[in-house]
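Re: that chain you flagged

S.,

Sorry for the slow reply, it's been a week of failed gels. I finally had a moment to sit down with the sequence you sent. For the record, here it is as I used it:
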Amino acid sequence: MERIGQHVALITIDRPDKANSLDPATLRALAEDFQQVAADDGIRCAVLTGAGDRVFCAGMDLKRTIVVARQLAAGERIDEADFEGLRSVSTATLAGFDLKTPLICAINGHARGAGFDLMLASELRYAVPSASFALEEVAIGQFPTGNAAVLLARQIGWVHAHDLLLTAKPIDAEQALRVGLINAIVEPGKLMDVALAKAEVIANNAPLAVAATRAAVRELLSMPLPEAYERQEQIGKQLRTTEDAREGQRAFADKRAPVFHGR
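Prediction finished late last night. Pasting the structure tokens below so you have them in one place:
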């Protein structure tokens, strides 16, 4: 993980020679980075990308992870680092692990399988024109146990979600934009600038309000409307008493930029 400025973290899946696929070591490294972000109140936004200019993340390194998983299932002794990698899968793919921080994906190429899952866990997504997106589990007799079965139909239209889930066929960046899977298509040379600039905008807003809004979207999504409106008022009432809220009001009245401290 790399700190960009004061409040933005940049995480790079750094295995370009293997299409940024997730082997045990990469899973462990990603999990550690995400845990660090979640635990650091000074990080107000994170950006995730892949190394190189061809692939964001091709998914799990099946050759490596399946071998280790089979050894483990057979009761064979495996390397401790490999074991920790397998244990880190849910955290590394943000499947059930709450980052607690807005995440922007700078999709520098193909996003397949677990790479697609990582993208689904983010709040904002920018992709290069050559990017493609696919969930290929059903083509190899597997079930998508990451984020796709849980989140995809909540994020894009029903028919488009099932097209991706059931055909295992890739879509290109233009189609991903049309169905609402990504925010924008950005030329490769500008991708990181756009992603980091957006992260800086988010990081400059009141951190308690950003965190509460992000969490509330998830919480309210499954609530019946009456309970959702009641809950959002509870959240809003709590935030109105913060120092940041008072600073925001003073700054507005003084016609200056607010200085937020997360209190």
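What I noticed first: Strands lie at 2-4, 8-13, 45-50, 55-57, 103-107, 110-112, 124-127, 132-134, 171-172, 184-185.

Talk soon,
D.
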